[in-house]
Structure formats: C-alpha cells, structure tokens
Amino acid sequence: MSDHVPDHAPDHVPNNTLERWIGNREQSMDHLDRALVARVAATFGKPCPAPGEPLPPLWHWAFFQNPLPGAQLGGDGHPTRGGFLPPADDRNRMWAGGRVEFLRPLRVGIEAERVSTVTDIQEKHGRTGSLLFVTVQHDYHQAGELTIREAQDIVYRQPAPPKLSLDEPMPQADWSQTIDPDPVLLFRYSAVTFNGHRIHYDQPYVTGTEGYPGLVVHGPLIATLQLQAFCEANPQTRPTRMQYRGLRPLIANRPFQTTGRITGDGTAELTAGNADGPAHRATVEFKNAQSQESRS
C-alpha cells in the first residue's frame, strides 16, 4: 500500500529546485509474515522467531517494500528517480548511514505501518565531486504505537573511483566476529530485502559501470551484522539507539571483522573493517534487558 505524494512541498519552495521534494510522504503496510522472517533468519543463520515474538533489531529492513515493475526501475536496479526521491540521474546512489531509535519491538505476524518522509536535501562538495545528500525519516507503528523511528542518509555521488582503504588501524575491541561475505550471502540479503541494486549481485555491472573490484556488501547488511554481534557479546542488554555510518565499501569474498567495545555506561562503539582499515562505524546506546522488557 502506498500513499505517494511526489510533488508535496511547502508553498515557499520554488518548484524548479530539488528542495521541492522535501515533505514527500510514502506509506507502506506489512504483516511481518513469518515466511519472510524465516528467510531472513536463514540468511543470518539464526533461529526464526514465532508469531507474536519480537523481530530482532534491524530485521525490519526486510519489510515495508513498495514493489515496482521492471519498467519503473533505473539502470542501476533502483526505482527510477524523481518520484518519492529527487532525481539524480547522473550519479551513483549509496546508503551513507543513519540513526535508529528502538522504542518497542515489532512483533512477528502482526500488521504494521511505515510512514516515510523526505526531511532534508543538501548539495555538498567533496574530494570526489558534488554530493547530494537526502535524508528520509521512517516511523514504524504497530498496534497503534510508535515502535521504531529512524532517519536514513542517502548520498548520490558523481562517478569516481571508489575509496577501498582507510589509512588507520582497526580499534581495540572487547569482542570480534569474522564475516565471509560470499556472493550467496549478498544474493540472499538482496532477495529478502527486495533490493534490486545491481552492485550487490551483477559482477559485470559493478566492475564495468561503477568501477568496484567486485560485488559490494550492503551497508544495511553490515549494520545488522554489527548490531547482531553486539547483542551476542552482551546478551544482558537491549539496544535503544544506534547511529551508523559507511566510510568505504567492503567487497565480496574478502573477509572482514565486526568488532566492538563498551565505551561508557550504556554506550558502545562498533566497527566493521579488515586489514585495509575501518569501513563502517556505529555507536549504540543500550539498557539492561530486564528494564527494557518491562517497558515492552
């Protein structure tokens, strides 16, 4: 279900600027079907929650998709721009990062709603050229209550050679997991999230058109693996907020580590990377699991 208003904008914003996309709103309904939950669980190698049980953190990214026919997709596999999101046809799209607030758990097998709003558009200039940053806020409701609030930062950049290393070491860590991102993992995550972006599964496209040395690991997949490792290393806690940011891409068939350390009372720092340095960073705020469950 979609309540799509591509031309909504404040009256004072000129219609010939990208800012007129600010205020665009889109609504999606989903039943959090257990069959798809089982596929997500298999992708991550985790037990499948039963109907009524909490959906693990960040698994909600597999839901609330608005499927479009192939004729409405661009050459990169994403929906054609200029609808809900502003046009940026000559640039490559990346998920730069975001912020997530976990208020209450979404529960499996129960209808829920996501309301998405374009809240900010900014043009910036970096070392690789002009960058267009678009921020989208997502509010998730279930049983009449707000469960998750998040903001996603999407960046459109002009074609340029990707930065594949960061000249700094991985930080010291309290825990670490090694991930082998083979093409099957990337394909399955694309499938369960209905993500058509060709950089994750189309080897000729990603190397010949966008200039990467191989298939690119999804940013949301990395963030989910980071938070999953945190929860496994700290089972007595429940995350309440997460902020994450991509620094450089990770490439399929090149193992990387998800590491983390407690930095204070109720805070942790997470890093994903390899011998070429950090690739994704995140901070997590958390509470004792018992106190969190008493609220939900």
Main traits of this protein?
disordered C terminus; 35% strand; disordered N terminus; alpha+beta; 10-stranded antiparallel sheet; single chain
Brief write-up:
Helices cover 17% and strands 35% of the residues.
Topology of helices and strands:
Elements: E1 25-30, H1 34-44, E2 92-102, E3 112-126, E4 129-142, E5 145-157, E6 175-179, H2 183-192, H3 203-208, H4 219-233, E7 237-246, E8 256-264, E9 267-274, E10 277-288, H5 289-295
Antiparallel strand pairs: 1-3, 2-5, 2-7, 3-4, 4-5, 6-8, 7-10, 8-9, 9-10
Helix pairs in contact: 1-2
Describe the structure.
The chain has helices at 34-44, 183-192, 203-208, 219-233, 289-295; strands at 25-30, 92-102, 112-126, 129-142, 145-157, 175-179, 237-246, 256-264, 267-274, 277-288. Residues 1-16 and 292-296 have low confidence and may be disordered. Helix 1 (34-44) runs antiparallel to helix 2 (183-192). The chain is globular. 17% of the residues lie in helices and 35% in strands. The chain has 296 residues and is α+β, with helices and mostly antiparallel strands. A hairpin with a 2-residue loop joins strand 9 (267-274) and strand 10 (277-288). Strands 1-3-4-5-2-7-10-9-8-6 form a ten-stranded antiparallel beta sheet. The chain contains five helices and ten strands.
